[in-house]
């Protein structure tokens, strides 16, 4: 499960990679995000009929009602930030299927985090291969989005929510992830198919990304994980 990722790309760089017209960039003066956690906002690319691609903010994680085990009263909703590729058409179709059929999106990222071990845990940040060790090329994770019910939204939220699709890990990520999973990273040539292709075409893209095109960009023990509201700390 991926519970942390980063996007330190500029809005201009995202518009260029994802071929988005400037008037369809709705991020405003968006800050760099070195750590994006579930429930917090992040840039997402979606396809809008009669408009084209647009860049918007969505909070991370589909929400479902949650209730206290003690007295059954409503408590903070659960945020489902990962949609397994093998569950989109399985038992959990009620949560993912409609979005997969009608509301697929691209989740821009510059790296994602997986943790290995406990006490101490090791944090590994994965990104795209690059000649410059300090470079963090943008890539896209296959995502789904929906508009959340008003009663589940937090204060000030628009209701726009996204999740990322995960698949079997490649040779680079597998030794790190205990359950052998990783986000579905899309090749740029497949962005259009994921956004507008048929369900069968999109389903064919749910596969591990080539490990030869990736690298570990940062690794450390017990790293500080700044909340996205702080936008500080070291850049993964």
From TrEMBL:
UniProt keywords, alphabetically: Covalent protein-DNA linkage, DNA damage, DNA-binding, Hydrolase, Lyase, Protease
Source species taxonomy: Bacteria, Pseudomonadati, Pseudomonadota, Alphaproteobacteria, Rhodobacterales
Keyword Glycoprotein: no
Protein name per UniProt: Abasic site processing protein
Family named by the database record: Belongs to the SOS response-associated peptidase family.
GO molecular function: lyase activity; peptidase activity; single-stranded DNA binding
EC number annotated for this UniProt entry: 3.4.-.-
GO biological process: protein-DNA covalent cross-linking repair; proteolysis
DNA damage is among the record's keywords: yes
Organism, as annotated: Neptunicoccus cionae
Top-level division of the source organism's lineage: Bacteria
A Pfam family of this chain: SRAP
